[in-house]
Structures are given as structure tokens and as C-alpha cells.
């Protein structure tokens, strides 16, 4: 099994420089759920795969990408609205990169 994260808010986002750092705040516009995922959402999927509840889950990739891998702007499958999907930040190490702090909902 595998976990395949999309755009996830993490401390790594603060390490980018130049043009890419300027693009980071716009990434949510390219995700159908209109937000960037949280580290806790990735961790929750991993915890599930390690749990007895996933004992019969085999050979799967869990995408944690807000449906970004399901469509594109040319062929939208879901038109999300900001605020429809709230990030799960249930673990104690939830982190919001500095580059996204002015983008909070």
C-alpha cells in the first residue's frame, strides 16, 4: 500500500525561493476542494493503513490531494467552493507554513 499526497501545507513550503514561493499561495485554486491539505490528513491515512482496520486493504494507493488527481481545469469533475472542506488538524504537530498564513479561511 502507499500514500500519495498532493499539495500539503508543511514547513518545507517555507524553504522555496523566488517564483515558486510566489506561486504557493495560488495552489489551492488548482485543487478541486479549493484548499491545501494538512500534514495531519496524510498522517491519518498512514495511521489507518497501519491499523487493524486496514488488514484486508492490499495493493492500494490512497491519494490525499483534494481530488486534484481526478480532473483538471479543462475537464472539471467537481467544482468545490472555498470553505466546503475543512482541513483535519487533529494531530499535535499541525503546521501552517509562513507562506500560507495570510491565506487562512
TrEMBL record:
Superkingdom of the source species: Bacteria
Enzyme Commission no: 1.3.1.38
The entry's keywords: Fatty acid biosynthesis, Fatty acid metabolism, Lipid biosynthesis, Lipid metabolism, NADP, Oxidoreductase, Peroxisome, Phosphoprotein
Localization annotation: Peroxisome
Molecular function in Gene Ontology: trans-2-enoyl-CoA reductase (NADPH) activity
Alphabetical list of Gene3D superfamilies matching this protein: NAD(P)-binding Rossmann-like Domain
Substrates-to-products reaction catalysed: (2E)-dodecenoyl-CoA + NADPH + H(+) = dodecanoyl-CoA + NADP(+); (2E)-octenoyl-CoA + NADPH + H(+) = octanoyl-CoA + NADP(+); (2E)-tetradecenoyl-CoA + NADPH + H(+) = tetradecanoyl-CoA + NADP(+); (2E)-hexenoyl-CoA + NADPH + H(+) = hexanoyl-CoA + NADP(+)
Record-level GO BP terms: fatty acid biosynthetic process
Alphabetized Pfam families for the sequence: adh_short_C2
Pathway: Lipid metabolism
Name of the top EC class for this enzyme: oxidoreductase
Main location: other
Stated role: Participates in chain elongation of fatty acids. Catalyzes the reduction of trans-2-enoyl-CoAs of varying chain lengths from 6:1 to 16:1, having maximum activity with 10:1 CoA. Has no 2,4-dienoyl-CoA reductase activity.
Quaternary data: Interacts with PEX5, probably required to target it into peroxisomes.
Protein name as annotated: Peroxisomal trans-2-enoyl-CoA reductase
Organism: Pseudomonas aeruginosa
